Amino acid sequence: MKTDIEIAQEAVMEPICEVAARLGISEDDLEYYGKYKAKLSSGYLDSLKDKKDGRLILVTAINPTPAGEGKTTTSVGLGQAFGRLGKRAVIALREPSLGPCFGIKGGAAGGGMSQVVPMEDINLHFTGDFHAITSANNLLAALLDNHIQQGNELQIDTRQIVWKRCVDMNDRVLRNTVVGMGSRMDGFVREDHFVITVASEIMAILCLAEDMKDLKDRLSRIIVAYNYAGEPVTAGDLQAVGAMAALLKDALKPNLVQTLEHTPALVHGGPFANIAHGCNSVTATRAALKMADYCITEAGFGADLGAEKFFDIKCRIAGLEPDAVVLVATVRALKYNGGVQMEGKPSMEDLSRENLDALKKGIVNLEKHIENLQKYGVPVVVALNSFVTDTEAEIAFVKEFCEARNCEFALSEVWEKGGEGGIALAEKLLEILDSEEGETAQRSGRFRLLYEDGLSLEEKIRTVAREIYGAGSVNFSAAARKQLQRLTDLGFGTLPVCMAKNQYSLSDNPKLLGRPRDFEMTIREAYVSAGAGFVVVLTGDVVTMPGLPKKPAAHKIDVNESGVITGLF
Predict the structure, then answer these.
(1) Which residue has the higher pLDDT, 28 or 350?
(2) How far apart (Å, rounded) are the C-alpha atoms in residues 109 and 100?
(3) CA angle, 383 as apex, 382 and 388 as ends, to 5°?
(4) What is the distance between the terminal CA atoms of the chain, rounded to a whole angstrom?
(5) What sign has the CA pseudo-torsion 416, 420, 421, 426?
(6) Is the Cβ–Cβ distance between 170 and 199 less than 8 Å?
(7) Report field, pTM of the whole predicted structure over 0.90
(8) How far apart are CA 529 and CA 471, in angstroms?
(9) Less packed terminus of the chain by CB within 10 Å, N or C?
(10) Among candidates 412, 417, 373, 381, which has minimal Cα distance to 395?
(11) Are 158 and 148 in contact (CB under 8 A)?
(12) DSSP-derived pairing of the beta strands 255-259 and 264-267
């Protein structure tokens, strides 16, 4: 059986100008990064503003398991299926982070016969967007420490510096560090911290900014520290905005690539959903909506994280209204949630055997995600990502389970068959979107947010914890209560909340699989991303700088003398 990278390397790609031409994009509207990658020019993006929007389809999933779910693969395959049905579709995805690529998760370009290509480029340095974000973040950190070194005119309290440096790699030893050691000329000695680039506020800002003016406005509002009077000190106060924007000028433009079947895809931005807001850029999503009749986008990890933030942060801030949601699940993952294990560890061999008892126990995870998505008023289709080991009885059980909960169902075979394997899912979506109900869903205001801006920060947190996660109670640490009150006093109480939580469980305990009920959720810390426009809330033991596993994926990645990369997945 061929690996994903082997399939991608054997693909015959079209020159990106030909992919663009089918969308009416001229070569003058492209900024080339080689033969198969290009950025959309600012002029072209401006020309789209008066065009009619297509339909917006979100792809999300159940909680991730070692068995795999296939959210990005489904997104790509669905886009290819629309193309096979003669429909004009553009896929809008996030860019992969180098941390997971060399860690445990691998890349994020899809899989099998449903991938975006060139796969190696997309998974590695791509067009340099993440490097630009990292550089802008760390330039601000350097200007901050330099300001303190050069006399500290803004009276920054070095005990209240909140801006962190970043790097796009899983590196746990950088979570907490000390800077400024050495001579007096080497800076002020203080404790510092790193986050992974995809958890940085600059990443969030880039993904939520509408244009260069909005980007600069957001950058100017970043809070880097507090002064001795307890007042915020911003990037604008440090006169850092212009230089940061210069580094981000090209990164702001969406990247155009293609799938294995030459469906156009905008791959742009990449915040994690467990520690950030988990969606690709507003710029890319809006462009895709104008460029095609159907925009297929995804949100990271399970629907409790990615989809909730897509709705309550991205849609709230950008004024987007989705027309339908695809919820991806697999029989194997549901059985894993039902307790199929061997010697305390999940066994792929056991997960591949028919086990209706485990499926019935584990399907409660899918049930909770269906209930959550239905709270937003958008039609939901469960896409069961097919594996050859799935039995007819197992598939029938999932189908009946979904339909009994007023949720549509479709079998997806896009990993094996590409677009052909996604036709059943595409046709189900078209049926919904073309129905009278689907036709008027967006205009009638059917889509609704989970909470109103006017709720207090604590009530917003409780609402997400209870309504989406299923918590019975929420415990705020003393530090968290104090931080939330301070943010409210500073005028940030009307912002949405970005919950940082482990991705493996609906709860803040990654070991609680299935559908935990009435648990206590712990809120340990909160801080504002004023430029992005939300308050970040840390739950449980979640960290904003991941570590590498005992056997990282990096051990298997190599490149031969001809420059061919192997081991990337």
Answers:
(1) 28
(2) 12
(3) 135
(4) 14
(5) positive
(6) no
(7) yes
(8) 25
(9) N
(10) 412
(11) yes
(12) antiparallel
Catalytic residue IDs = 71, 73, 94, 105, 273, 301, 387, 415
Residue 314 tokens, joined: 């991205």
Q: Which residues of 134-148 are buried (b: 16+ CB within 10 A; e: fewer)?
A: bbbbbbbbebbbebb
Pair 538, 526: CB distance under 8 Å: yes
Comparing CA positions, the residue from 427, 471, 54 lying closest to residue 304 is 471
In the numeric block, the tokens 């702001």 are attached to: 252
Q: What pLDDT does 344 receive?
A: 53
Tokens matching residue 304: 């409790």
Tokens for 139, please give them: 């330039």
458-500 residue pLDDT tens: 999 999 999 999 999 999 999 999 999 999 999 999 999 999 9
For 552, the token pair is: 């990282």
Neighbours of 503 (CB within 10 A): 19
Angle between helices 241-248 and 212-220 in degrees, nearest 10: 140
Alpha-carbon distance of 409 to 423, in angstroms, equals 13
Residues sharing a CB contact under 8 Å with residue 419, sequence separation 6 or more, in sequence order: 77, 79, 80, 81, 82, 83, 84, 114, 261, 263
Residues 6 or more apart whose Cβ sits within 8 Å of residue 142: none
Identify whether the C-beta of residue 248 lies closer than 8 Å to the C-beta of residue 133: yes
Average pLDDT over residues 408-413: 96
Q: What gap in Å lies between CA 449 and CA 321, rounded to an integer?
A: 10
> How far apart are alpha carbons 8 and 453 in whole angstroms?
45
Residue whose pair of structure tokens reads 């004023």 in the numeric block: 530
CA distance 56 to 246: 32
The proportion of the chain whose per-residue pLDDT surpasses 90, expressed as a percent, equals 86
Task: Classify the C-alpha dihedral 466-469-474-477 as positive or negative.
Answer: negative
